Structures are given as structure tokens and as C-alpha cells.
Amino acid sequence: MHRRAWAVLLAAVAVSGSAQAEIRQAAADGFFLAYSAPLDVDTGKAWADLVQVQKWWSNEHTWSGKAANLSLTAEAGGCFCERWSAGSAEHGRVLMALPGKLLRVDAALGPLQEHALKGVLNFWLREDDYGKARIDVEYRVNGTSISGLDGLAPQVDEVLGAQVSRLLRFISSGDPEEKTKAATVADDTARGVATRAQILEEWKKQAEQEAAGRVATPADKGRPKPAGSKP
After folding, report:
1. How many CA atoms lie within 13 A of 204 on its CB side?
2. Among 3, 15, 7, which Cα is nearest to 152's?
3. How many CA atoms lie within 13 A of 229 on its CB side?
């Protein structure tokens, strides 16, 4: 992706989703970003989704414009890479992979790599004493005193926060895209129509059964018949 396009994206992308985001530290020579959110799946499922980076990463934050060109080998030394017909790029390299627990990647993401910066991206998957899972994402970037990273921290926070939100949606629903209000209303309406149709169908079947005569149950056989009824 061209430098100018990245600059526009860094300034324009807003954080969405339910993750709690925080710039824990920001100085000229480094910054530390953190995101945290509960999960409605177990850590095994979350890990399986996490390592399928090509399915949840944004097209806009790739060099080729297609997240499908991404791949991640989830083992030490494994490449978080992008390959397309015109070239290839290494977004990061796996430092540690503990399935269901931790993915640590050496990654100076996007335009940060050309400034000779050091970045480490951690994805922690944890469970509390009650078995409730959560994900904690941490990104630490270091440079020199002339790097001006305190000015970049809020912009990188927006971009990475958007990626984390896409990951959360993918883990939760299998779809990383954020639905618009109109789409959400349409889904609710469709569910409502289906529910009403099911209720009407049940009423129809019940009416047909009553018209054909109610089938006697064992309890009915012991009840006295109404006066004037035939034996």
C-alpha cells in the first residue's frame, strides 16, 4: 500500500466493536497499546479463528488490497506474510505460539517497518476461574528519541483497534464486517417474519386437527360423556 494511502487510513479509521482500548504509554521513543474483551467461545475456538488472519484482517490494511493474500504460520519462526502476483511482504514473524493461550509476533506493522522500528504484538487468550474466556491484545513499539512515536500512537491505536474489532466479530459470528443499523434491522425483521410464519403454520395445523376430530387421550377415556351424547 502506498505511503500516502496509509497516511489517510491512519487518520481516518475509527475503533469499533466491544473491545476496551487504551494507550498505556506514549513517548517519543515508544508506545504501548492494549485492548481487552470477553469472548463468548472457548479459547480453543478463539485460537482457531485468530490464526486465520486472512479471514478477519481488513483488505484496506494490506499492500495488495486483498486480505485473502495473507497467511500466518502459527509456530515459532512462522511468517505473517502477504503474497500476490506483483510481490510479497512480511508483516511479521512469530516469536511464540502456544495454541489456545498466546500468539506473539515480531511486527512493525504497515508504514512502521520502513522507519526501522521494533514492534511486538501479543494476543493473549485466557480463562477465569469460572471458565469464561477473554482476549487481551498488546502492541509495544520502540524506536529512538527522534522517532516521534508519541504522535503516531493515537493513529496506530485507531488502525489496530479496528483490526481487533474485526477479529472479535469474526470469533463471535464468523463475519468480521460491522453491520449497519439498517442491516441489523433487516435481520431482525426477517427473523420476525419467520417466527410469525411458523406460528401461523402451527395454528393452521391445530385448526385442521380440531376439524378432523380431537384424538382421545387416556385421560379422556375416563371422563363422563356430556348428557345427550352418543355412546
Report:
1. 6
2. 7
3. 6
Exposure of 198 in the CB half-sphere (CA atoms within 13 A) = 6
- Retrieve residue 118's grid coordinates: 521494533
Q: Which range (51-55, 158-162, 194-198) has the least confidence?
A: 194-198
Q: The domain 7-173 belongs to what CATH superfamily?
A: START domain (3.30.530.20)
Q: Between 149-173 and 43-50, two packed helices, what is the crossing angle to 10 degrees?
A: 120
DSSP classification of residue 63: S
pTM score:
0.71
pLDDT of residue 219: 53
Sign of dihedral through CA atoms 60, 163, 6, 76? negative
Lowest mean pLDDT among 48-57, 80-89, 128-137, 196-205: 196-205
Three-state DSSP class for 106? Answer: strand
Q: Please tell me the distance from the alpha carbon of residue 119 to that of residue 67, in angstroms, as a whole number.
A: 21
3-state secondary structure of 98: strand
